[in-house]
Write a structure and sequence with these properties.
Protein name: Carbon starvation protein CstA
Mean pLDDT: 86
Number of domains: 1
Strand content: under 5%
Keywords: Cell membrane, Membrane, Transmembrane, Transmembrane helix, Transport
Number of strands: 2
Strand order of the largest sheet: 1-2
CATH topology: Amino acid/polyamine transporter I
Number of helices: 31
CATH architecture: Up-down Bundle
GO cellular component, one term: plasma membrane
Main location: membrane
Low-confidence stretches: 1-11
GO biological process, one term: cellular response to starvation
Distance between the termini: 42 Å
Structural class: mainly alpha
Radius of gyration: 25 Å
Shape: globular
Length: about 750
């Protein structure tokens, strides 16, 4: 069915005359968004602030650069991108219609399909997408200097990352909340669809495993962190029950309660860490923590979404956004001077101690989620589209949620480059390089020959003591480095040196909350995908309410990413150092797959949409070139520091020859096993992605030639509810909300019982 017939169907949606209007008219929307002299002045000032920030970062910079310019450049660019570019996408590419009921309204079941307040859903979506990527990637990429990462994080999200999230969310919502794999099968045919499904499932295993690995590295042997993060689970359960049964709809009220409980958990964590029983029972080995996260992932993925997932995500988002805004305010107040070069020698030579490889393509796959993330496509086509109240909210949730994640990435980058460079490299170099000791770290970092770096043992020991940790050497994964940078900046603004330990562990909990919400949401999405795939042969599995199917598929996916997590935790070369490049490449390959599916869908919508295809085609082309190039490096590079297979054969040959220069036999066997897994997955991922991209291009060309294609959207159903589109309701929306309040109060009462 062509696009014109679809729009015709949408135009015939007749509202229930007994209900208030379910959507604003075009005239009302135009009235709310009309330009006034004050708006023009405000946007002119925003543009000037952004231009000044970019000028200071990219052109007028001396030996140091003030961190305040990062905030100006980022915020101004985000505001302009959201206000103007996302509006172009909404108007010309997607064309939402609030008269049309969403799957959450049509299929409401109280479990997976639940109409959710847009602010709570924004929190859930942001928390689910904002895992380790925006924290770890920019921290690791700091070894290449501040400018390349800053440009990609800010510009990349406006033109690529937010575009993917917004479009995938919208088209999944129009298809009943189908996953990206299901949409690929419908839109690209059997070969392209099967390749997309297999790639999505395998890539999901890698992504969730690395997310969990970052948490393990952050909480390992840290009683304070273990206690505080563990307490967030009962707090989230309480919030879910509070909103469901005790005080439905009281979002602000439960937010305040949750925030107070979170702060209490952090403070109590400091007390617990000083007790004998805290040291005995919560000073956990990384392997133990890994198993705990595996068990948590299973339980969280099978519980009803309203009980743990949504309130936990909202709770963590409340804290995440608050912390990032607070950090931005502290940067403006403290104005730390950045001494890291705009572009370092490591970016040119490709021989960095944190990760190896040249700036192109490894900067882009290392930053990953901060600018463009395929993992987001799984969330945007998994849990979130089943919870959206109204179609126009997808812009705020999809595009706006990704912009906030990018801001997290910029703040992570600033925090990482604000600390001493010597300490940065000591924290992020693998234990194999530093031997895990202060002396080894000092010798290794000083041997790098970095200008202006002269690391001493006292710098490492005094820093560890200041943040309440036994050691900060080889605390890889990015999370500890970000926590130290945040603590370094925040103590200058609030509390002084005496508050360093509090701010450090506050940041650790903040980061772990980020990541665990992505772990449980990712596992739930993977379960949906696997249920649908098995449903081809056993239709019963497609019923997402069938509990045996839920438990079986969840167990399979948890076992998959759990096995990779254990490999990473026990990796002799430092799990995050060797696995994160694979994570970044897999993540970006999945983004290319998602954009390819969106490209085909838009082409099928009809000729009036084709001239706007460049909005999706440009980020797709860039992601494809970057990821295929990076995959080629990892598969074919003869440099063992870059190529998985060259490193695999190096250790294999040494073990066969009885050469122990590279380590003990047990260590070499672990490296051989891990590099084999990484190298094999690299080949599989890039092959599947190329198949999907070729299939999508073929479908797109055919649709353009035919003037459209098959419409796989669900049949439109008239909506029977209203909700504002953005975070803050417009004056017209507020008037309409008042008419709907008695009806929605009845619905909340029904849900409570």
């Amino acid at each position: 069915m062509s696009a014109p017939s679809r729009r015709g169907k949408a135009a015939t949606l007749e509202p229930d005359p007994s209900l208030p209007p379910v959507a604003l008219t075009e005239e009302q929307t135009a009235k709310d968004s009309r330009w006034t002299p004050l708006k023009i002045v405000i946007w002119a000032l925003i543009a000037l602030a952004g231009g000044l920030g970019w000028t200071m970062l990219a052109i007028v910079r001396g030996e140091t650069v003030n961190a305040i310019w990062f905030v100006f450049a980022a915020v101004a660019t985000y505001l302009i991108g959201y206000r103007f570019y996302s509006k172009v996408i909404e108007k010309h590419l997607l064309r939402p219609d609030d008269r049309r009921a969403t799957p959450a309204e049509v299929k409401q079941d109280g479990k997976d399909y639940v109409p959710t307040d847009r602010r709570v859903l924004y929190g859930h979506h942001f928390a689910a997408i904002a895992g380790a990527g925006p924290l770890v990637g920019p921290v690791l990429a700091a070894q290449m200097g501040f400018l390349p990462g800053t440009i990609w994080i800010i510009v990349g999200v406006v033109l690529a990352g937010a575009v993917q999230d917004y479009t995938v969310l919208f088209f999944s919502m129009r298809r009943g909340g189908r996953t990206i794999g299901q949409m690929a099968r419908q839109e690209l045919g059997r070969i392209g669809g099967t390749a997309a499904i297999v790639a999505s499932l395998l890539i999901m295993l890698i992504i969730v495993a690395i997310l969990a690995l970052v948490v393990v590295n952050a909480l390992g042997e840290s009683p304070w962190g273990v206690f505080s993060v563990s307490m967030t689970i009962p707090i989230a359960l309480f919030m879910g029950l509070y909103l469901r049964y005790l005080r439905p709809g009281k979002v602000t009220e439960v937010s305040i309660i949750g925030f107070v409980l979170l702060i209490g958990a952090i403070v109590a964590g400091g007390w617990v860490a000083e007790t004998a029983w805290g040291q005995e029972y919560l000073h956990l080995d990384r392997t133990v923590i890994a198993w705990g996260i595996i068990i948590y992932g299973f339980i969280a993925a099978v519980l009803p979404v309203w009980l743990l997932l949504a309130p936990r995500d909202y709770l963590s988002t409340f804290m995440k956004i608050g912390v990032i805004v607070m950090l931005a305010g502290a940067i403006v107040l403290v104005r730390p001077e950045i001494t890291v070069p705009a572009v370092t020698d490591f970016a040119i030579a490709g021989t960095g101690p944190v990760f190896a490889g040249p700036l192109f393509p490894f900067l882009f796959v290392t930053i990953a989620c901060g600018a463009l993330s395929g993992f987001h496509a799984l969330i945007a086509s998994g849990t979130t589209p089943k919870l959206v109240e109204k179609e126009r909210q997808t812009r705020f949730i999809g595009y706006g949620g990704m912009i906030m994640e990018s801001f997290v990435a910029i703040m992570a980058l600033v925090a990482a480059i604000s600390i001493d460079q010597g300490i940065y490299y000591a924290m992020n170099a693998s234990a194999a390089s530093t031997m895990g000791t202060v002396e080894g770290a000092v010798a290794f970092v000083n041997s790098l020959g970095i200008t202006g770096v002269n690391l001493t043992p006292d710098m490492l020991t005094s820093t560890a003591a200041a943040v309440g940790e036994e050691s900060i050497v080889s605390r890889t994964g990015g999370a500890p480095t970000l926590a130290l940078g945040l603590a370094h900046i925040m103590q200058q603004a609030l509390g002084g040196q005496a508050m360093m330990a509090f701010w450090y562990h506050f940041a650790i909990m903040f980061e772990a909350l980020f990541i665990l919400t992505a772990v449980d949401a990712g596992t739930r999405v993977a379960r949906f995908m696997l249920q649908d795939s098995i449903g081809h042969w056993v239709p019963k599995f497609r019923d997402v309410s069938w509990r045996p199917g839920v438990w079986i598929t969840t167990a399979i996916m948890v076992a998959g990413w759990g096995a990779i997590l254990i490999l990473g935790v026990t990796d002799p070369l430092g799990g995050i150092n060797t696995f994160f490049p694979l994570f970044g490449i897999a993540n970006q390959l999945l983004a290319a797959i998602a954009l390819a599916v969106v490209l085909a869908i838009i082409a099928k919508r009809g000729p009036s949409f084709v001239k706007w295809l460049w909005i999706v085609a440009l980020p797709l082309a860039f992601a494809a070139v970057v990821t295929i190039t990076a995959s080629a490096y990892k598969i074919f590079s003869p440099n063992p520091a870059i190529g998985y297979w060259s490193n695999h054969f190096r250790y294999r040959d040494a073990l066969a020859a009885g050469n122990t220069e590279l380590g003990e036999p047990k260590v070499m066997e672990a490296v051989i096993r891990n590099t084999f897994v990484q190298g094999t997955l690299s080949i599989v991922f890039v092959t599947l992605a190329i198949i999907v991209i070729i299939a999508a291009v073929c479908v797109t060309i055919a649709a353009i030639r035919r003037g459209g294609g098959e419409n796989n959207e669900d049949e439109p159903v008239p909506s029977r509810r209203f909700a504002p589109a953005g975070f803050v309701a417009s004056p017209t929306e507020r008037e309409l909300e008042k008419q709907w309040e008695p009806l929605l109060a009845d619905e909340r009462a029904t849900n409570r019982h």
